[in-house]
Design goal:
alpha+beta, 4-stranded mixed beta sheet, 9 helices, globular, disordered N terminus
Amino acid sequence: MSDSDTSPTDSAASPVRPVLDVWCELQCPDCHRALDDLRALRARYGDRLEIRLRHFPLEKHKHAYAAAQAAEEAADQGLAWPYAEAVLARTEELGAKGERLLVEVAGELGLDAEEVDTTLIDGRHMLIVDADQAEGKAIGVTGTPTYVIDGRRLDGGKSQEGLRERIEEIADRLLAGRGPTG
């Protein structure tokens, strides 16, 4: 799930933006704590850095998989990040209320809550969530949040300490045109 969509013709006309993949789980307390860093990165870079939410629901959180599906429906309705942030802000409540909260949050944001509810029943976004999770496992993601930028995996599940600064350092270098380092 990306904060903006670009058609193939758009990317040919403009330089490629650096991409930050954020492997996240919407019931994860560590991801909740990472929200301020994500907001700061989005504020600092705007459209110059593409920040993509990648789903990595953990088995220990009962409602994480449903939350990922609901987030994809919110993305289809044009409110990807606002929905993800609203759910992350209520991780404890999600644990108690489950899918009811996911539909409630959709309604609060002005989304078609009935469509979000239907998504949770028909599973139309399961393949996206499964693909994200499989890709995450393939690159070594074991917990959330995990960040990947310029081929570097930065694990935020243990501590968020210094991660935003490291991401900014890499993004600044890429945006300055100095390319990847090995």
